[in-house]
Amino acid sequence: MLVLLRRLCLAAGLVALASPALAGAPAYEPLVDSLARTAPKLDRQVLTHAVAAMQCAVNNGATPADRLAVIDFSRPSSERRLWIFDLRQQRLLLRDFVAHGQKSGENLATRFSNRVGSHQSSIGLFRTAESYTGKHGYSLRMDGLEPGINDRARERAIVIHPAAYVNPAWIATQGRIGRSQGCPAVRPEVARMVVDSLKGGQFMFSWYPDQKWVRNSAYLNCKPNQVAGILAARSDG
């Protein structure tokens, strides 16, 4: 019965499973397996962290999502380090370039912040929100779910938007693509698809092996009471 339930949930794109483990494996492991097959270039451990954080949120009050975006900031900006997954069909929609903040680093991002005016990127689990047309064109707002790590994203105007400087042609001359003021900016050629895929309450997970965050994140370590409190305060789900 548990196996049947898990298959039905995964087929529907619902990652909130009641059982924390089955046959010694985390309940989300089949979803990780399925997504990993579609994205062989994405480090499996990073994908596992992303799915585990998302499932922890869903299991503790967040509405299940249809899509998941993963950014691996441990990779240089000269690599395609953004992945977008369709959770219902368990397939990869896009792998592409994404910018990091000017003060986060050159080609490699090594510094992250939640502070207004830092011009650094933020890591952790986010929930996407409304699309809008602003000074950068068609863009997407999002809210950070991790207090002290990324929960000032909206206040900082950290959004997904198109930017001409997210240009792989720069790599040959600059050694990197261009950088933002902290936003995960994308190529204009894919921006509309990215925004339309992610708007309306999807999950985005930005990874960097910051050991303090890894040790303390309520989502990475799945602390149910803490996560439930965070989500209730946001009236999420």
TrEMBL record:
Keyword Signal: yes
Signal peptide, first to last residue: 1-23
InterPro entries for the chain: YkuD_2
A Pfam family assignment: YkuD_2
UniProt keyword terms in alphabetical order: Signal
Name recorded for this polypeptide: L,D-transpeptidase catalytic domain
Protein's organism: Stutzerimonas balearica DSM 6083
